[in-house]
TrEMBL record, chain A:
Record-annotated Telomere length regulation protein conserved domain positions: 315-423
Record organism: Oceanodroma tethys (Wedge-rumped storm-petrel)
Protein name: Telomere length regulation protein TEL2 homolog
Stored Gene3D superfamilies: Telomere length regulation protein 2, C-terminal domain (1.25.40.720)
Superkingdom of the source species: Eukaryota
Residues covered by the TELO2 ARM repeat domain: 128-224
Single Gene Ontology MF annotation: Hsp90 protein binding
Cell compartment(s), UniProt: Cytoplasm; Membrane; Nucleus
GO biological process assignments: 'de novo' cotranslational protein folding
Automatic annotation (TrEMBL), chain B:
PROSITE patterns xrefs: WD_REPEATS_2, WD_REPEATS_REGION
Keyword Repeat: yes
Repeat among keywords: yes
Name of the protein described by the UniProt record: GNB1L protein
Organism: Oceanodroma tethys (Wedge-rumped storm-petrel)
A family per Pfam: WD40
WD repeats: 200-241, 287-328
Keywords from the named record: Repeat, WD repeat
Lineage, top ranks: Eukaryota, Metazoa, Chordata, Craniata, Vertebrata
Top-rank lineage group of the source organism: Eukaryota
Length: 632, 328
């Protein structure tokens, strides 16, 4: 496409039309991959070409404007290039404005970060367009801060909006920030609240990062908001958006190499420096010791590696432990007791059974008095040991305390964790008569943080689906494993039913269906695990039925973490309850659940929920098929 | 590849009480038997026969109150013992006798072990904690005449004297006293003038024990904290800190330097005996046998170097005897 500049008044409307038509038919890539680089070069220094380019895009008819603008935004190598190509199109053309400020930012979220950078950079480069930038920021913040958006929109969209906000913030200048400081502050406060309320750690973190960034922008002097969260690649990427690098750094590769070389050269110098000081240091002591060695120093030292700090002895009896933990002022002894407690409990089951509930009570309320490493884990392992040694009374105590007044959320979640770990241990076959504590971790259920459980669930369900859908005749390739009675069988009901009983009864300090939906989520996941571990126990059918009813009651819960838990519950039921019992005793519940699963699959905003629903439907199908293939 | 530390050569059992003090008497010729004296918390002084490893005699002279210091006076026929009954007893053990010849009533209820120095044949100087809180009294034995009373100046706030060491550079010279006090300082006293020559703060906690090498003019003190302090005496009779050594566990009850000045032993609250080279305080061995605090350590005075022994008495009622570094 070559035009004769200078003097000639040419009409490029025809070209605009062609461009528009091609773009709308989906051929943006082909045509723009040729057009955009050409135009970039031509418009670099030539004003006339710039004007021609602007005319070109302005003349595109409205019905094709979106495709063209989108194509340009995606193809342009940088915000400045986009600015040269499009000029003030967004100000002049209503449709373009809508696409750029509303559609791309708020209604779509598929574009990569580079596109966002281009777009927002473009808006910031001209004074006419800056007003639009501020307007865009306000709208983004409104969306970011709205609690319904946080609850119902997918995490990917929320991340996209957060990125856009950060880039906008990076472009704002001081006077502009001054003028909208109050608004920024208000939206930040609202937004932070709804983000922190969410159960998904990713959303919480996004909220924290954005709030920190806003706070650092509006409070340039004085205390800035600072949150504590896990720094990983995503967080670093988001934070890097706050700083705008000048466009020149991106293209030339030579300066980069130079910089790299310099950095490389600097490193060896530093290393050499270190090495030199290291070699210098040993020389001195050698000289010193040489000077002092004489005939008297032929006394050869003995091996002193056993010489360590003296440790206080822990008590040897369980009742002594109770005394130390409740009354003792001696911190060394208290520490030694906490460390030794789990092994003591396991070695003396009879003695533990006598005082199990008392010990469980003390452990539940035990607070860290001195700074021991791994205190939380030590306490948890001791609690699990007590629970597995005397399951029924301690389970009764713990489940009743879960619904009691005046416990902190942390304590309630501790109860759930301990119940699950103990159930895991009890249901795992003991090899050679000894429990393998680390072995109990093997069924791939890691319950150290609730956020991980959704990923593990997928893995477990996947594995089980795999094992159930393919039926090859495999010979005995492994030696028969040691078998023993399932200890969980007799106590599964005691773990499970009390937890499910009172979930809808609110207490003054604890309302599962209200504010404490995080604990509800954890409770649901715990029930799913208990259900899964109850496979081959006697109570499994009753548990399954109760669980399906529980799921039915909560199925429309707004929190996606809770919904994921409910879907895991269904998986556990389908996997643990024997198929015949499922289809005979629970046909109605199963049908209702199936219809709900279909609903979730189509309409749920959360990707994880949809995936779990799909897996559950597959499971149901497989079960039905299996039953049909069994010869009657 | 360092060897593991040696085991005790033998262990003396039978005191049935915590052992607080030990003293060897092995310098005499054959057919005399090497002897070890031990003082226990039940008030008995046991005379151990080191050939048979059995108690030859048990001396009961302190009314069943703990004996916390024993020293030989003139070989194994004379013994001095100090007990919690506020008495220092002088024993005559020649020819099988077990009689208390004389006793000094100290009126002191503390734990400070007295220090004995032979100044002439048949004459000793003894330094002991006196009745008043911060005072040390020096007596001449066996006449029991008071040589001097060493009072710290008013406001010095040294606290009780915790350990004492009388010494003289060689036979004719002036005897001097090193005293470790409750506030962690060591003071050098001139006996003839009754004045303090130098004071040095060695520790933050009370000085539990000290020992001094007059040839090298260097001394070492241990405390209830984790640090051993080595100090030296310069020509102007001033004490200066030479170096400190950090220990693994806190608490030292006793320190003693071997007569040949090559090694020293410390008795620790962590049940361990530590051996160091005296020249540079190089750790040489950690002897871990006892199951309770080691109260005292003592080196034997064998004429034959290869027979030399180290004894340690502990709260666990045992006395362990070790043969270590006897080749040098």
């Amino acid at each position: 496409v070559c035009f004769i500049p200078g003097g000639l008044d040419c009409s490029i409307t025809f070209v605009s039309h062609v461009l528009g038509k091609v773009c709308v038919h989906g051929r943006q890539k082909e045509i723009l991959s040729v057009l955009v680089p050409r135009l970039t070069d031509l418009t670099k220094s030539d004003c006339i070409w710039q004007r021609i380019c602007w005319r070109l895009v302005e003349c595109v008819p409205d019905r094709w404007m979106e495709a063209v603008v989108l194509g340009f935004v995606q193809r342009a190598p940088g915000a400045d290039v986009l600015s040269r190509l499009l000029g003030n199109l967004v100000v002049k053309n209503k449709k373009a404005q809508f696409v750029v400020t509303q559609k791309v930012l708020l209604l779509q979220y598929c574009h990569p970060t580079a596109v966002l950078q281009n777009l927002l950079g473009y808006l910031s480069l001209d004074s006419l367009r800056r007003a639009l930038l501020i307007k865009v920021l306000q709208e983004l913040l409104e969306t970011w801060g709205s609690s319904s958006a946080v609850k119902h929109s997918p995490p990917e969209q929320q991340q996209y909006i957060s990125k856009a906000i950060l880039i906008c913030l990076s472009h704002l200048k001081e006077p502009e920030i001054e003028s909208c400081r109050q608004e920024l502050l208000t939206s930040m406060m609202e937004g932070v609240k709804c983000h922190l309320d969410s159960n998904l750690p990713q959303i919480r973190r996004l909220g924290m990062i954005v709030a920190e960034s806003i706070s650092s922008k509006i409070n340039t002097d004085g205390p800035v908001l600072k949150f504590q969260y896990e720094e990983d690649d995503e967080a670093r990427e988001l934070k890097s958006l706050l700083v705008q690098t000048p466009p020149f750094c991106v293209v030339p590769s030579l300066p980069d190499d130079e910089r790299n070389e310099k950095a490389d050269a600097a490193l060896p110098l530093v290393l050499e420096g270190n090495k030199k000081s290291h070699t210098a240091a040993p020389v001195m002591p050698d000289e010193e010791s040489d000077a002092e060695l004489d005939s008297d120093d032929d006394l050869i030292p003995y091996d002193m590696s056993e010489d360590k700090e003296l440790k206080t002895k822990a008590p040897v009896y369980i009742r002594d432990c109770i005394e130390v933990l409740t009354g003792s002022e001696d911190m060394d002894k208290w520490e030694a007791t906490v460390k030794a407690l789990e092994s003591l409990v396991r070695k003396n089951p009879a003695a533990t059974r006598e005082i199990s509930v008392e010990l469980a009570k003390i452990l539940l309320h035990l607070e860290e008095k001195t700074c021991i490493e791994g205190f939380v884990e030590l306490r948890q392992r001791a609690q699990v040991a007590v629970l597995t040694t005397d399951p029924i009374p301690v389970a009764k105590y713990l489940t009743s305390q879960f619904y009691s007044l005046n416990y902190s959320l942390r304590q309630r979640m501790d109860i759930l964790d301990v119940l699950v770990l103990a159930a895991q241990e009890l249901s795992y076959p003991k090899s050679h008569g000894k429990t393998k504590h680390s072995g109990a971790q093997k069924p791939c259920i890691q319950l150290l943080s609730g956020s991980d459980s959704s990923k593990d669930w997928r893995r477990i369900v996947d594995e089980r689906i795999k094992s159930k859908t393919r039926r090859f005749a495999m010979g005995q390739s492994q030696v028969e494993l040691a078998s023993g009675p399932n200890e969980f069988s007799s106590v599964a009901g005691h773990f499970f039913f009390p937890l499910i009983q009172h979930f809808d009864r609110p207490l003054t300090t604890f309302d599962l269906l209200g504010e404490d939906h995080f604990v509800l989520g954890r409770l649901v996941h715990t029930l799913a695990v208990l259900m899964y571990l109850a496979v081959n126990t006697v109570a499994v059918t009753a548990m399954g039925k109760a669980l399906l009813e529980f799921v039915w009651a909560l199925r429309f819960h707004t929190d996606s973490y809770v919904r994921q838990g409910l879907l895991s519950c269904i998986s556990s039921v389908l996997l643990s309850v024997p198929t015949e019992r499922l289809l005979k005793d629970m046909t109605e519940e199963l049908l209702e659940t199936q219809s709900w699963l279909g609903d979730v699959l189509e309409k749920d905003p959360d990707g994880d929920c949809r995936r779990l629903a799909l897996q559950n439907l597959l499971l149901v199908e497989n079960l039905k098929k299996k039953l049909k293939t069994v010869p009657s | 590849m360092a060897l593991p530390p040696p085991d005790p050569q033998f262990v003396l059992r039978g005191t049935s009480a915590a052992v607080h003090t030990l003293c060897f008497s092995c310098g005499s010729q054959e057919p005399d038997v090497p002897i070890l004296f031990s003082g226990s918390e039940n008030g008995f002084i046991h005379v151990w026969n080191l050939k048979t490893h059995r108690v030859d005699t048990a001396l009961d002279g302190h009314g069943r109150k703990s004996v916390y210091c024993v020293e030989t006076m003139g070989g194994k026929d004379g013994l001095l013992s100090q007990g919690r009954d506020q008495r220092i007893c002088l024993w005559d053990l020649a020819e099988g006798r077990t009689a208390v010849m004389d006793s000094v009533f100290t009126e002191n209820v503390g734990f400070c072990r007295c220090s004995l120095l032979k100044v002439a044949q048949g004459r000793w100087l003894m330094a002991m904690a006196a009745k008043a809180l911060e005072e040390v009294q020096v007596l001449e034995l066996p006449s029991k005449t008071s040589v001097c009373t060493l009072k710290p100046e008013v406001g010095a706030k040294l606290g009780m004297p915790m350990c004492l060491k009388l010494w003289q550079l060689n036979c004719g010279s002036q005897p001097l006293l090193l005293a470790g006090y409750e506030d962690g300082s060591v003071v050098l006293w001139n006996l003839s003038m009754g004045k303090a020559l130098s004071q040095l703060v060695c520790h933050q906690e009370p000085v539990m024990s000290l020992d001094f090498d007059s040839e090298k003019a260097k001394g070492i003190s241990g405390s209830s904290e984790k640090v051993l302090s080595i100090w030296s005496l310069n020509e102007q009779q001033n004490l200066q800190v030479y170096k400190t050594h950090k220990l693994v566990n806190a608490g030292i009850s006793d320190i003693t330097i071997r007569p040949d000045k090559k090694i020293l032993a410390t008795a620790g609250w962590d049940h361990r005996i530590r051996i160091f080279g005296w020249k540079k305080l190089r750790p040489l061995a950690v002897l871990d046998y006892h199951t309770a605090t080691v109260h005292c350590v003592s080196f034997s005075d064998h004429k034959n170097p290869s027979e030399r022994l180290l004894a340690a008495g502990s709260k666990d009622h045992r006395i362990s005897i070790w043969s270590i570094y006897t080749q040098t």
